[in-house]
Every structure is written in structure tokens, then in C-alpha cells.
Amino acid sequence: MSTPYHACYYSHELRRRAAGGDIDKLSMSLFDASVDLTPHQVDAALFVFQSPLSKGVILADEVGLGKTIEAGLVLCQLWAERKRRLLVICPASIRKQWSLELSEKFNLPTIILESKNYKQYIKEGNDNPFRQASIIITSMNFASRMKNDIKSVPWDMVVIDD
User: What is the mean pLDDT of the chain?
Assistant: First the structure.
């Protein structure tokens, strides 16, 4: 079981070790993960962190080579660093798949945000349901309709899966 103290310690240790850009960048953030990784997936995740000043990266592996796992590795590392403004925008048909992958393989909390529960959060007094300490997963169509709410959040990372 990880406590906030452990997450902070591991995050500090990962940042310290990452100066050389080696695999230690990710190793400790995966202590709770249950996923078999391939070398190219680890390389892709490390690539994301190698240029912290970049505005983003595109993971464009062939179908079936694990882009979701690569993105999950990055999200897992960011979560270990206590970054909580994480958003996944994907087709509606794979929202549940994203949620299952992140929760089962990386032990990450997720919320699938859609019209029904969005309205419920508003009724409960949450003025912007996109501001929650969980990885928010939403469809492209819903994200398009709620673009003003999404733009108002200073995201740590946004993953867009087409």
C-alpha cells in the first residue's frame, strides 16, 4: 500500500535518477502495477519524459503494440509525482477499456465523465466536474461540448486516443 509520503519519496527519487534518462525514471512508479512490459513500451514512456519543455509527443506504434500501456506508464509516473490533473479523451466506445486498463494494470483511479454523471456532479455543487483528483476519461464528443470547462483546467497531461 502506498501512502502520500511514499508517493512523494518515489517521485523525488525518480526525478533524481532520471537525470541520466535511464529506466529508473519509471521503475519505482510501477511498484503497484500488474502489467508485463516490452522494451519498446518502456522506451516510448521514457521518450515522453526526456524533453520536459516539449508541448507533447505522438505515440504512433502499429495497432496492437500497446500504445494504451505506453500512455498508462506515463500517467502512472505522473500520478506517483502527485500530479492529479490528468485527462484522457477517446472515442466513446473505448472509455470503459481505458478505465479498466488504468485501474487493473496500474492501480490508478479513474472517472468516466459523461452527460449523466456530469449533471449529477453539478447538482452536488461541483462547479467543474473536470476538476477531480482522479484520471478523467471522456469521449471526444463530450469533450467537444464541454470545451470551456476543459480549457479552464491547467492540465498536467492530456492523452488523446483516436
Answer: 81
Which DSSP string do the residues of the chain spell out, in sequence order?
---HHHHHHHHHHHHHHGGGT-THHHHGGGTT---PPPHHHHHHHHHHHH-TTSS-----PPTTS-HHHHHHHHHHHHHHTT---EEEEE-GGGHHHHHHIIIIIH---EEE--HHHHHHHHHTT-S-TT-SSSEEEEEHHHHHHTHHHHHTS--SEEEE--
For residue 77, what are the domain limits?
1-83
Q: Which of 64, 83, 102 marks a domain boundary?
A: 83
More confident residue, 90 or 9: 90
Domain boundary among 31, 57, 83: 83
